[in-house]
């Protein structure tokens, strides 16, 4: 497949606050309907899901945004999962997570995109369900299972849309969203063909231990657990100067992934900016990661030539 050339504006201008959010893998969102990207057919939707509580099951909605190429489709689907801010008080500020340069890139490749806002974040709000406990003894498996529920709900909702090719689904996530994507893939949702994990993980705190997250062995165990039932290939994309998850730590996670039967490849990019953890959220990085993603997905998904 000849790679489609995509024009990328490399001019990048952002405030200090926006820089911090890019590093964390999240972005402020403007929810004014007048500012929606009409060229991407941006639409806000409510995704139904079932919560399991002490007093039984109940239904609730999570807020998501869909983006579509021109035409009737059906288009292969990307479910894009956001990260988590370092400060819990900032979770509402994620809004709808509108990473438009990245989303536009996926749409130009011919993908429909849905961006669910998981429970406890942004416009979805409600109770945060992805707590992993203490840094000394984190329970990443439980946290991953909760995050996966929201991702799986988004897949099920998108499968009802006439523009979506339900047989070609790709999970893409950054930071906590990358980990959520790994966890969701373990449930083998119908139509899933691949996962792209940008700097995925949980428990990082560069202010205390740069590059060394809470319970790296527990994370390896969680990844091994999820990988044991993951049937699709995964692209692991990380950066050398990630201040949340250092390459030597990630290498042990990838080894655990492979030991459990996980298939895929890991790429570690040269240093990017002051903290490579937020590479995906910076539009200048698109020409760096896009060729890897295209080569990885080319045998698995029908994309625009």
UniProtKB/TrEMBL annotation:
Any Pfam family matching the protein: Peptidase_S15
Transmembrane regions: none
UniProt superkingdom: Bacteria
PANTHER family in UniProt: DIENELACTONE HYDROLASE DOMAIN-CONTAINING PROTEIN-RELATED (PTHR22946), POLYKETIDE TRANSFERASE AF380 (PTHR22946:SF9)
InterPro entries listed in its UniProt record: AB_hydrolase_fold (IPR029058), FrsA_esterase (IPR050261), Xaa-Pro-like_dom (IPR000383)
Entry protein name: Dienelactone hydrolase-like protein
Entry keywords, A to Z: Hydrolase, Signal
Organism this protein belongs to: Caballeronia novacaledonica
A molecular function (GO) term: carboxylic ester hydrolase activity
Leader sequence segment: 1-29
Annotated ranges, domain Xaa-Pro dipeptidyl-peptidase-like: 62-200
């Amino acid at each position: 497949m000849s790679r489609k050339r995509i024009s990328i504006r490399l001019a990048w201008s952002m405030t200090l606050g926006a820089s911090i959010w890019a590093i964390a893998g999240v972005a402020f969102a403007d929810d004014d309907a007048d500012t929606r990207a009409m060229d991407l057919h941006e639409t806000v939707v409510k995704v139904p899901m079932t919560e399991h509580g002490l007093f039984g099951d109940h239904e609730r909605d999570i807020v998501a945004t869909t983006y579509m190429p021109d035409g009737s489709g059906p288009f292969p689907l990307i479910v894009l999962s956001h990260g988590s801010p370092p400060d819990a008080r900032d979770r509402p500020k994620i809004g709808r997570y509108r990473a438009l340069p990245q989303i536009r890139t996926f749409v130009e490749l011919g993908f429909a995109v849905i961006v669910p806002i998981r429970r406890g974040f942004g416009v979805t709000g409600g109770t945060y369900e992805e707590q992993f406990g203490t840094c000394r003894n984190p329970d990443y498996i439980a946290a991953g299972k909760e995050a996966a529920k929201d991702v799986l709900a988004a897949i099920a909702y998108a499968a009802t849309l006439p523009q979506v090719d339900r047989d070609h689904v790709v999970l893409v996530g950054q930071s906590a969203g990358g980990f959520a994507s790994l966890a969701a893939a373990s449930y083998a949702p119908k139509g899933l063909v691949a996962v792209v994990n940008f700097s995925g993980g949980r428990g990082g705190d560069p202010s205390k231990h740069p590059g060394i997250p809470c319970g790296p062995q527990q994370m390896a165990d969680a990844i091994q657990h999820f990988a044991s039932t993951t049937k699709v290939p995964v692209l692991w994309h990380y950066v050398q100067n990630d201040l949340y998850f250092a390459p030597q730590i990630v290498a042990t996670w990838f080894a655990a992934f492979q030991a459990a039967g996980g298939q895929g490849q890991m790429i570690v990019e040269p240093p990017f900016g002051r903290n490579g953890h937020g590479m995906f959220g910076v539009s200048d990085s698109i020409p760096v990661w896009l060729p890897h993603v295209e080569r990885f997905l080319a045998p698995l998904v029908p994309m625009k030539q």
